[in-house]
Automatic annotation (TrEMBL):
Top EC class for this record: transferase
Protein name (Swiss-Prot/TrEMBL): CDP-diacylglycerol--glycerol-3-phosphate 3-phosphatidyltransferase
GO molecular function: CDP-diacylglycerol-glycerol-3-phosphate 3-phosphatidyltransferase activity
Organism encoding this protein: Geotoga petraea
Lineage of the species this protein comes from: Bacteria, Thermotogati, Thermotogota, Thermotogae, Petrotogales
One GO term describing the cellular component: membrane
Length: 170
């Protein structure tokens, strides 16, 4: 197993303590924030490392995407449970990610592996910013605006993903 793949697996493992710290309440919010930030930064590291040392693999493309979805969706669910973000937002994000993951599995069955594009990377960036902001500024009007923008970009990126790959699907 190469370094980027190991880092992606570590990101999945880090999801558990981030989730637990988030649902434990406000006294643990900063610890959850710090651990989440480290996990999010590991996403940048594994991508950089894979490109720099020519360790890009199909497994890595899969693990990177899945580890991001697990981390981000679990934290959004924890923030929902803590009463920090609304359910409509989590439903949109989880639905979009499930839809795109379904497409990825279908494409994988046809031996097609699709890496994330810039729109997907923007979506992930906005989701990470939304989480960081939610930890720092609970129930702020700016947070709701950020969540709306993030939800719109997430849905549009899901539509874009389908559209770019529909020739494999239909």
């Amino acid at each position: 197993m190469n370094v980027p793949n190991a880092v992606s697996i570590l990101r999945i493992i880090m999801t558990v303590p981030v989730y637990i710290l988030t649902v434990m309440g406000p006294d643990y919010k900063i610890a959850a924030l710090i651990l989440f930030a480290i996990a999010a930064l590991s996403d940048l590291f594994d991508g950089w490392y894979a490109r720099k040392f020519n360790q890009i693999t199909n497994l890595g493309k899969f693990l990177d995407q899945i580890s991001d979805k697990i981390l981000i969706n679990a934290v959004f669910i924890a923030l929902l449970g803590a009463g920090i973000i609304p359910g409509w937002f989590v439903a949109i994000i989880v639905s979009r990610d499930t839809f795109v993951s379904g497409i990825r599995m279908f494409l994988a069955s046809k031996n097609v592996v699709v890496a994330a594009d810039n729109f997907g990377k923007l979506k992930t960036f906005l989701q990470i910013v939304s989480i960081l902001y939610a930890y720092l500024f609970v129930n702020e009007p700016v947070l709701i605006s950020l969540l709306i923008f993030t939800a719109v970009v997430s849905v549009v990126s899901g539509i874009n993903y389908f559209t770019k790959n529909k020739h494999y699907i239909l």
